[in-house]
Amino acid sequence: MPQDSLIVVCPICATSNRLPADRLGAGGKCGKCGHALFGAGPVTLNSSNFDAHASRSDLPLLVDFWASWCGPCQQMAPAFTAAASQLEPQMRLGKLDTEAETAIAGRYAIRSIPTMILIRKGREIARQSGAMPASAIVSWARQAAGA
Ligand SMILES: [Zn+2]
């Protein structure tokens, strides 16, 4: 049975918003802070908002685990941002700085970067290491999410 409403977590304040599923692409705004729920690119993930996006949201979360010293990560950053504009609003994209957020990087046993992990309702469903162009990120994520 298709869900008729979805929990969408605000990219700015991490509040859970309940949206009718058929209004997902309609440019909804956060009921608490008023910010647009989509369109601002990947969310900067940290210890205070990670679990909301990974577990509380009904949308799959695609995380780019990166670090500032990593050349391939820097190269992939514009591709990941471009992928966000294609994968939203069916998915949320976020970036996790593995140097700043070592506990989360450790929880996912990140051994090389960039690594992308697709998470749905708190569960890892796919992972891929190495930089990819935007088109490859989009097709890999859609296939992995079964969408
Ligand atoms: Zn908000």
Write a structural description.
The structure is a single chain. α2 (71-87) crosses α4 (134-145). The chain has helices spanning 50-56, 71-87, 102-107, 134-145, and strands at residues 5-9, 16-20, 43-45, 61-66, 92-97, 115-120, 123-129. β1 (5-9) and β2 (16-20) form a beta hairpin. It is an alpha/beta fold and 147 residues long. The model has no long low-confidence stretch (mean pLDDT 95). It has a single domain (40-145), classed as 3-Layer(aba) Sandwich (Glutaredoxin), CATH 3.40.30.10. Zinc ion binds at residues 10, 12-13, 15, 30, 32-33, 35.
Chain-wise SSE layout:
Layout (H helix, E strand, L loop, with lengths): L4 E5 L6 E5 L22 E3 L4 H7 L4 E6 L4 H17 L4 E6 L4 H6 L7 E6 L2 E7 L4 H12 L2
Parallel strand pairs: 3-5, 4-5
Antiparallel strand pairs: 1-2, 4-6, 6-7
Bound molecules: zinc ion.
Zinc ion binds next to loops.
Bound molecules: zinc ion
- On the 0 to 100 scale, the average pLDDT is 95
Number of strands: 7
Q: Into which percent range does the helicity of residues fall?
A: 25-40%
Helical region count? 4
Radius of gyration: 14 Å
**Which CATH C-level class is it?**
Alpha Beta
Shape: globular
Which terms summarize this structure?
147 residues; alpha/beta; Glutaredoxin; five-stranded mixed sheet; binds zinc ion
Please provide a brief summary of the model.
The protein has a single domain, classed as 3-Layer(aba) Sandwich (Glutaredoxin), CATH 3.40.30.10.
